[in-house]
Design goal:
Blueprint: E1 2-5, E2 8-15, E3 18-23, H1 24-33, H2 42-55, E4 63-66, H3 68-77, H4 87-99
Antiparallel strand pairs: 1-4, 2-3
Length: about 100
Amino acid sequence: MKVFENKETEITEQRGEEIKKIGFKDLALVGLNAAPKEGWTTDEMRKRFKAIDKIENLKIGDKVELEDSEFEVLLESSKVNWAIMHKDIIRFDDYLTLLK
């Protein structure tokens, strides 16, 4: 088991008029929702949805226990090509490496 914490970042997103800081769960969801290079299999979807279901509703500061298999899916899927460059993405990657 690994305890994943939704830490706050300095990265912001805008929804309508509201601008808010995102957390590690938002960065995790980028990777979990990104299609694998070879495309989706139903097995891959099942694995990723299991992790998504546990983290998608976390608020900043919330923690959740992930089974080792769920954490491995999160770790593997986080190796995506990012559209932005930001130090908090590096901090997120370092955090996942630390949890290993």
